[in-house]
Specification:
By secondary structure, this protein is mainly α. It contains 10 helices and 5 strands; from the N terminus they run βαβαβββαααααααα.
């Protein structure tokens, strides 16, 4: 059994002080979905876990005066998915978060957590969902900004194939198992779908730019 100190800071400065005190032996915990898995697998063995759930203000979604969105680190995936504010003004973001894992995980996992641990298993589906949303924009969107759609599609292609390679890197040293095989099959099945859609969007963009 691991001997881990459980810490509950009440402010961000207090959390930073605890991190400085424990150094690499201290790990932050938000929703805990990733941390619980790696603890069970003995891939992470810290001396202290610093829980952020008692810090106020990190679980809010706000629209700023300039129209941009501020999402707190403790906001769950499910909250982003169902937020009326996000659905109205940032529909793609809502739809992307809806593709991650399952409802039980989305109710627990946080935005800050997924950005910090960069889970390779959830990156490719999110990139594919984002690209799928770009097709109608390429076909029917404002002609004056159509080149931006092309750049966006290329950026997503880089993100997708980077995530695909990341899956390979992270899984290569794991022993063979049905779970490992399943994840590789799911990854490989997405590649032709993604590439076909990316090429289709680029063709639409080029055709519209020609006139």
């Amino acid at each position: 059994m691991l001997d881990i100190t459980w810490l509950r800071p009440k402010t961000i400065p207090e959390a930073l002080q605890m991190l400085a005190e424990y150094g690499d032996e201290g790990k932050l915990v938000a929703g805990g979905t990733w941390v619980s898995l790696v603890l069970k697998q003995r891939l992470l063995m810290p001396s202290a876990l610093i829980y952020l759930g008692d810090i106020p203000g990190l679980d809010r979604i706000e629209q700023l005066p300039d129209g941009s969105l501020r999402i707190g680190a403790l906001v769950t995936h499910r909250t982003v998915e169902l937020s009326p504010l996000v659905r109205e003004h940032f529909t793609l973001l809502s739809e992307t978060f809806a593709t991650v894992a399952n409802v039980r995980v989305r109710c627990q996992a946080t935005v800050g957590g997924v950005l910090c641990d960069a889970d390779y298993a959830s990156d490719p589906p999110a990139a594919l969902a984002a690209l799928q949303a770009m097709e109608p924009v390429a076909a029917k969107g404002n002609a004056n900004s159509i080149s931006d759609v092309g750049v966006g599609a290329l950026s997503l292609a880089c993100a997708f194939h980077g995530a695909r390679m990341n899956v390979e890197i992270n899984l290569k040293d794991l022993p063979e198992s049905e779970e490992k095989s399943r994840m590789l099959r799911e990854r490989d099945a997405m590649v032709p779908v993604f590439d076909e859609l990316a090429n289709k969007i680029q063709n639409i963009v080029q055709e519209r730019m020609r006139g």
